[in-house]
Amino acid sequence: MDTQTKSGKMVMFNQVGGPEVLQLTNINVPAPASNEVRILVKAIGLNRVDLSYRQGVYSKKPNFPSKIGFEAAGIVESTGSDVQHLSPGDEVSVIGAFSNDDYGTYGNLILLPAYAVQRHPKRLSFQQAAGLWVSYLAAYGLLMDVGGLKKGQYVAINAASSSTGLAIIQTVKKIGGIPIAITTSSHKKKALLDAGASHVIISSEQDITAELLSITGNGVELVLDAVGGSQFEKLIAATAITGQLIVYGALSREYSSWSTIEVLSKKLTIRGFDMTELLMVKDKVKAAVAFIEEGVTSGSLTPTISKTFPLAKVSEAHRFMEENSQVGKVILEID
Predict the structure, then answer these.
(1) Whole-model pTM above 0.85?
(2) Residue 316, Cα to own-chain centre: how many angstroms?
(3) What percent of the chain has pLDDT over 70?
(4) What percentage of the chain's residues is helix, strand, coil (to nearest 5)?
(5) Fold type of domain 134-276
(6) Where are the domains of the chain?
(7) What is the CATH number of domain 6-132+303-333?
(8) Does pLDDT of 2 surpass 80?
């Protein structure tokens, strides 16, 4: 057990706003408490929730000065006295089951609760491992825990080019379902097909409802929507009788409206999902981690990296994410 405080760099922010509020700050990183781990970070995964949190539109408001970030990968530098499952030198990645009031991952030397640190499969690079858990745990929760996806069922995925969208496509294929990717940009079509999508719909050029009904015949059994807004009604119209529509994001700031009669007559289930309902149940997390590790080891689940930035260019990385041009995960690398 290391008892020394060490110097490090951490991205912090003192007010909500645009990417420019993020500041790389020199900090002192204390020795890990009994149930903590100190990690030498090699790569950091960026998520949409990071942008929302920085902008002040996430459900949890930041307390300033605020840390940021829920994903990273690196090497265990030291452990607290009660930590049994990890040792210095272990290559690990982070499961984001904590509050940014207490912890953050945007740094080169970070403290984290030991329960949120996991050895990752050797097959992954640090960059891939930094983009593993948020996306694939969300995919597992949506498809397995909540959606109950069965082999042969259709799944429509809105905002499919995100890291979570790609993780969902791969997970649907692993389960034996049929993934239909929905994206706004035609230039992303090939990448989505290469990622495993059976069909791709370009929402800016095609009628979502007509295309989904043409592909499925009787509608989609499971619709996963991270957008909302005006597209929501179109997705409901293409959902099969007794189908499910699960909302896991709100990229559109528009209000959604839909036909109540259609929901009633089709006996649809519409519900929201966030990661807490998976992360707060230990047995669910254990099952999800085992499923993901098996998929990574077998090669059926592999994080896709869109672009990497050095830690010092964190504001540029956030701006890139706000352009919505990426296909896959945006990563910060540590020199």
Answers:
(1) yes
(2) 20
(3) 99
(4) 35, 30, 40
(5) Rossmann fold (3.40.50)
(6) 6-132+303-333, 134-276
(7) 3.90.180.10
(8) no
